[in-house]
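Dataset card, provenance and construction

Sequences and ligand SMILES were collected as paired inputs. For each pair, a complete structure of the chain with the small molecule in place was predicted and serialized as structure tokens. The example below shows a pair involving 2-acetamido-2-deoxy-beta-D-glucopyranose. Curators did not alter the output after generation; any descriptive sentences attached to a record were derived from the structure itself.
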Amino acid sequence: MVYLIIKAFHLKLQPHRDKLPADMGWTYCVIWFLCLSVSECWKLLATHGEVQSPQYPQPYLPNMLQQWDLRVPKGYQVQLSLTHLDIKFSFGCYKDSLTVLYDHMILGKFCGQENSTGHPGNESIISQGNTMTLIFQTRDFAPELQQHVGFSATYDAIDMDECSQQDPDSDPLCYQICINIPGSYRCSCHRGYKLHVDQHTCQLSCGRQTFDKHEGHLASPRYPHPSPPSLSCKYIISVEPRFDITLNFTDSFHIDSMDTEQGPRCLHHWLQVTIPNREPMKLCGAKSPGLIDTNSNTVTLEYHTDVKGLSRGWSLDYSTSVGVINCGEPEPLLNGGVTFLSGSQNQHLSVVQYHCNEPFYTLPGGKNVTFTCEADRKWRSNQSSVTPTCVPVCGQPTKLISTYQRILGGSDAPQDTIPWQVLLTGNGIAGGMVIGDRWILTAATSVMSTGNQSSPESVLVFIGGTNVKTLLESPVPAASIHVHPEYNNPDFINYNHDIALIKLQDPITFSSSVMPICLPAEDATYHNGEMGLVSGFGLVQYGERQILTNTLKYLQLPVVDQETCSQSITSLAQSGDQVPDLTNNMFCVGVPEGGKDSCQGDTGGPFALRSGGRFWAAGIVSWGVDCGRQGTYGVYTRVTNYLNWINKTMQEN
Ligand SMILES: *[C@@H]1O[C@H](CO)[C@@H](O)[C@H](O)[C@H]1NC(C)=O
Ligand SMILES: *[C@@H]1O[C@H](CO)[C@@H](O)[C@H](O)[C@H]1NC(C)=O
Ligand SMILES: *[C@@H]1O[C@H](CO)[C@@H](O)[C@H](O)[C@H]1NC(C)=O
Ligand SMILES: *[C@@H]1O[C@H](CO)[C@@H](O)[C@H](O)[C@H]1NC(C)=O
Ligand SMILES: *[C@@H]1O[C@H](CO)[C@@H](O)[C@H](O)[C@H]1NC(C)=O
Ligand SMILES: *[C@@H]1O[C@H](CO)[C@@H](O)[C@H](O)[C@H]1NC(C)=O
Ligand SMILES: *[C@@H]1O[C@H](CO)[C@@H](O)[C@H](O)[C@H]1NC(C)=O
């Protein structure tokens, strides 16, 4: 920190420099300021200075063109005082002259001597902003004949009065009061108003109070005089829950509005009445709303006005009466409903019970949930206060396949016996299974075409029937496809991780024809010889030929010991065929004598095991060597190995 005491009060500006050169150093600093740094001083210095024509006070030279760009701090104006001007007179100063400009606008062009035309006299020149340009120009003449000395001037930074220099066409700088301060201005507000955070508008703080008496009076600020602009008022009336509030607006009601054919539109001013659990009402116009029975023990009123428009205001009395406690309609329940157990019309102590659309949906835990209308006008349950949700029931078709015939190639599945079965087309024919209201589980192979994942638009999903023709009439749009990230099978010899999920655009509403199959329990096991249900719309043996089926087929087949299956595959490989590897993510299903198997077109479909009365997705039809060939088995994706991936994928999408 340095105190600089320098004698020079004025800065001599060199021609054509709008900034002080650094090498002029700190010695030009002015004395009465505490200078914290040299750069701090420049700012102070630029608040005044002196300009003189070259040679002054010696006569000036011919053919000169000199320019000075003066600059003072922002928020100030430049005031130029010509202490002496002596420039050879010419008509209109077209020969020798001093021109003063602000932002390319000529403020004056001077020549001559005191008392002659063209001389500025002792009037000072003020720029509209914080800069000013001086141009001194001389023509050709014989220097020895010329006695005029040019000019000498001082300049000062004078505070600009932004408040009085506003452009009348633009918005005012300040909404209410403009105060000029050195170098700037600031806004202020009339009494009662508060300056908004925008530092420009003023708002009248009003309301912000709670009325808890059983009757009372409210009115717009300054009522019955017109409402001030820029109001933002909030009034809360809140009494004990047993009471109902009635608002009684007086007849003299006027809130600025725009009249339309549909009635007044509240554009700039309004009074919003908010009653819990109802759409807020915006009031405006010239017609009093009269009485409003709120049927509520709390009401919020918010009065808003802005700069435009004029409202004459409003006033109301409110009263309360012991009200009928009414909880309103209970929340509806998706895939379920509400039944009244006791009480009437959603009034106090009415009891309702939620139920789900059985047998397709159930309340979690299978418990009945009742809600009672309490004194605070809310439905409350002894178990929870949130509306329950209905969860889909999985793996329990409304009809079971009763006879398991041993028919080569499978039997027709009766309607509703395998309601999770999905038919996929678009990339050949494939199968899948419904596992959630938006999710289909299938094989990766079914949603890949030539090494690339099919687009959701190209995969058509059909659910809810056994007849192919009928099914094909109504596809369900897919939203996204999620193939297991480690599935990599460009040459059809690596079926490891053959699993994919399809997300549907819209949730399915379950019924007897569409129901999800359960996912395996985390500790689910596959017992050798355990019979499961394979189903699909794939190829069936018809005499010597394999043809596509027209109805859903099913087969009962046992789980095969992994070792036995592995051996069958090894022996195939030894006979020269290129056979995919059997990994621990796969298991086999089938009978050694062959003839019964899943086949092309079944890929992605389910192998369902049943335990505890529920079918669960044990396997996904993946691959096989021929269909139903003696000594070979069908290979299925082991779903229990993918529970985490399925769970994660469904949660993240
Ligand atoms: C200018 O006019 C004033 C009064 O009219 C006079 O006193 C003064 O001497 C004149 N100055 C010159 C330089 O003529
Ligand atoms: C200019 O100076 C003369 C003489 O000093 C004075 O009478 C006159 O009022 C001044 N004019 C202005 C505008 O200052
Ligand atoms: C509403 O207020 C008016 C006076 O403004 C009064 O005459 C009328 O009786 C009141 N209505 C009720 C229902 O209180
Ligand atoms: C749930 O309520 C229904 C109908 O009120 C009743 O039939 C059923 O037995 C109840 N279930 C339980 C678990 O209480
Ligand atoms: C909730 O109330 C219902 C009906 O009164 C009753 O059946 C149920 O046992 C209660 N549950 C609990 C957790 O208190
Ligand atoms: C996969 O898609 C890309 C881009 O769409 C294409 O260039 C490529 O040929 C496709 N791969 C196969 C195996 O078709
Ligand atoms: C799925 O994830 C949820 C939450 O992360 C967890 O509660 C649930 O047990 C998981 N289920 C399985 C089968 O992993």
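Derived descriptions for this record:
The chain has four domains: 3-160, 206-322, 336-392, 421-650.
Helices lie at 38-45, 468-471, 562-574, 643-652.
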